[in-house]
Amino acid sequence: MVANKPLSGKVALVTGGSRGIGRGVALQLGENGATVYVTARPTDKQEEFTKNLGISNLEKTAEQVTKRGGKGIAVYCDHSDPEDVKKLFERIEKEQNGRLDILVNSAFAGHTEVCLHSGKFWERDPSLFAINNDVGLTGSYICATYACRLMVPKKKGLIVTLSSVGGANYIFTPAYGVGNAACDRLAADMAHELVGTNVVTVAIWPGAVNTEYMKYCVEQNPELKSIFETAESQEFLGKCVVAMATDPKITDKSGHIVTTMHLAKEYGLVDENGEQPKDALIEQQEEHINFFNSTKPPKTA
């Protein structure tokens, strides 16, 4: 491992990292020297479109993390199974001598049901709510719980929970919006109880992202094409996570909603096209973000 990389010696966990945004985050963490545990569901538990398109490759992601200059460790984990998640953290604790510096909660289930199936919520099976939130919300809570058991004693850590503007603006279905709003609230409320520990928790909103899944959605719904003409690359959110993880003043953001658009401006980050991302829906929610962030916890207990 190259010593001058800013995350050299750091240990990170990226859930749902076999494709999409999770993969992009894992690669950026690896490029900056971190040891990165990357998780994905076992093949037999993956969504049909994932298996059919062959877009999920956990081992390849871990290999790429290592090639970038970090150390990638692939772990199959069903984040809808609390016992499986517990075993994951027990492994990290054992292999890394109780160290975990960064947790990125990006695992999410139910993409197809949420984004591609039409119908009002009362016309669809109520199980949609659980499908959408058992992994993205409940799974994030469970991961954060175990992560804090490693981070708090060492008085350092960063927990990033993937959310979206859907927490403040209607997108797809009520189940999706409630899940994102709850992830925002989860990050904020955890920050209140983490005051004085030097463990930071934030919810992050990317704009539209050119993931494999979103490309698939555009193929199914061509009217979505314009949304993704200026979409972020899969790795841009990862650049934002690296910037936060190396920011000596990151505690000022604990309990906040942060967006890739705002972080790009703050840290001077540009995407693969040399530009900083913009997102009209996020721009429309400035008042919501500012009010939400104004309720952050005090710096001392």
UniProtKB/TrEMBL annotation:
<dbReference type="InterPro" id="IPR036291">
    <property type="entry name" value="NAD(P)-bd_dom_sf"/>
</dbReference>
<dbReference type="InterPro" id="IPR002347">
    <property type="entry name" value="SDR_fam"/>
</dbReference>
<protein>
    <recommendedName>
        <fullName>Dehydrogenase/reductase SDR family member 1</fullName>
    </recommendedName>
</protein>
<dbReference type="Pfam" id="PF00106">
    <property type="entry name" value="adh_short"/>
</dbReference>
